[in-house]
Amino acid sequence: LRIRGGAVEAYDGAGGRRHWTHTRAGRRPLAVRPAPGHAFALWSDGLVTDTARTTGRTVHWHRAVPGLSRWLAAGGPGRAAGVLQALDRAARMLAVVTPQRIAAYRTRDGDLRWVLPAEPGCAFDARRTARTGGALLVAQPCGAGASWTAELVAVDDLGRIVPDRTPLRNGPPGDHARARKVVAGDR
């Protein structure tokens, strides 16, 4: 999966033959993220699309992210790096990291599951992320005088990782298998 000109293109890994091309009139893709069965793309107008990875003919869903197009337009090449983040290995959830917020979408249907706004005076930096275990760590620079712990946020498919959080049910309706205790109790 790669960007070529104004298109997202999928190629056969073994032979290099192009399988499909997806374009949007007057828009260009800025970032792509492959996942099992999905081809996520971030477009110049701030739209995020999920295209069927096997055929490219079906757009499963698309979401406009508030404020994203202005931020993308104000920056140079590379601004979109790190904006699209899978929150688990199976890519059941996709995070869209912008300076103002992190929004998580269920990849099956594009349903918005949670939004985490940046702390006042801080901004998320999509280019400064790391993974550890099941967590995505995102830099949140806050300026001079802020402690390093305030400048780092950990999230997963259930939202921000904090002690004693109540897990969301992020699976499709009727699927309660994802509900689990997040933090172990006293022993």
Give the helices and strands, then pairings.
Blueprint: E1 2-4, E2 7-11, E3 18-23, E4 29-35, E5 38-43, E6 47-52, E7 59-64, H1 68-74, E8 84-86, E9 93-97, E10 101-106, E11 112-117, E12 125-132, E13 135-139, E14 152-156, E15 159-160
Antiparallel strand pairs: 1-2, 2-3, 4-5, 5-6, 6-7, 8-9, 9-10, 10-11, 12-13, 13-14, 14-15
Question: What would you note in describing this structure?
Answer:
By secondary structure, the protein is mainly β. It has a single domain, classed as Methylamine Dehydrogenase, Chain H. It is 4% helix and 42% strand. The chain contains 1 helix and 15 strands. The chain has one helix at 68-74; strands at residues 2-4, 7-11, 18-23, 29-35, 38-43, 47-52, 59-64, 84-86, 93-97, 101-106, 112-117, 125-132, 135-139, 152-156, 159-160. The strands form 4 sheets. It has a 4-stranded antiparallel β-sheet with strand order 4-5-6-7, with no helix packed on it. A 4-stranded antiparallel β-sheet has the order 8-9-10-11, with no helix packed on it. A 4-stranded antiparallel β-sheet has the order 12-13-14-15, with no helix packed on it. Strand 9 (93-97) and strand 10 (101-106) form a beta hairpin. The longest helix has 7 residues, at 68-74. The radius of gyration is 17 Å and the shape is globular. The model is unreliable at 176-187 (pLDDT under 50).
